[in-house]
Specification:
Layout: E1 5-13, E2 16-23, H1 33-43, H2 45-52, E3 62-67, E4 76-81, E5 86-87, H3 91-103, E6 110-116, E7 119-125, E8 131-134, E9 138-149, E10 153-161, E11 165-170, H4 181-197, E12 210-215, E13 225-230, H5 242-254, E14 264-267, E15 273-280, E16 285-292, E17 294-303
Parallel strand pairs: 2-3, 4-6, 11-12, 13-14
Antiparallel strand pairs: 1-2, 1-17, 3-4, 4-5, 6-7, 7-8, 8-16, 9-10, 9-16, 10-11, 12-13, 14-15, 15-16
The structure holds pyrrole-2-carboxylate.
The site of pyrrole-2-carboxylate has 11 residues, from helix 3 and helix 5.
Length: about 325
Amino acid sequence: MSIATIKVIDSHTGGEPTRIVVAGIPDLGGGSIAEQANFFREHHDWLRSAVANEPRGHDAMVGGLLLPSSRPDCLCGVIFFNNISTLHMCIHGTIGLGVILAHLGKISPGEHRIDTSVGVITLTLHDDGKVSVANVPSYRMARQVAVQVPNYGEVKGDIAWGGNWFFLINEQGPPVDSQHISELTAFTTAVKNALADQGITGENGMEIDHIESFGPPADASLADSKNFVLCPGNAYDRSPCGTGTSAKLACLHADKKLTAGQVWRQAGIINSVFEGSVEPIDETKCIPTVCGRAWIIGEATYHFSPDDPFRHGIASAT
Ligand code: PYC
């Protein structure tokens, strides 16, 4: 099934791309955003591939569908996706969505509630153009879980939910710097595969599909920590990853290392920084807020010529 054209707006948040489809989205059957995400996966996966994969996209591309929400308290809904499937949540993408909504004249500075497949989040557009996102409740499920990783030995990490499931590794494996991206990709991919092989999951058997490796920041005056995040589909996040920062904040909260409102500066692998803080719910759960900047970099109309064999993208090799 195909449609004539769609319109997209591209942004990047700390180097990580977001491509939001703003017009031409097919009917996703109505219902909640979670129900529409299921329908999108089952019936319109071609659209995900056409937007995220080559020749229009690439493995690091994160896409989103801008949708109306059936919730009267929400401005809109969004379904995020990448080179292989839908994402539960994407905070760098929501920061990008914030500047796109402002560009479209749909929001001005202030708070706006956004409906997602895993809960309602609050986006704040600040006067200086920064965007903060108060995420869904986040928590650490398990501390220092050991996994046997072929060629690397035992690796220990925390399992935490920050809108996606993360395995958070501290100072093990290759150095966390941009000279070691291929080694970090190989290491975190091996950890992800080992977790799956050894049946180590998030809550309700959910796959731990994001692996986050931490090291010291390049400049301690600018950040408290630096990360490398492997995303599902095996591309790494160019930004510090908002759900990954949320998972880190949840672990710091559980360890009582971060008080309410205290700022944590998380650098990513190319040294862009997100500022995060927590609002405690109880001793283990919190609402993380992640703040960053995004820039609009393009707008386009996509065509789907029936005789173009690659009109729906080239399936990612990963
Ligand atoms: O910023 O939450 C995020 C994210 C998830 C996947 C890529 N970026």
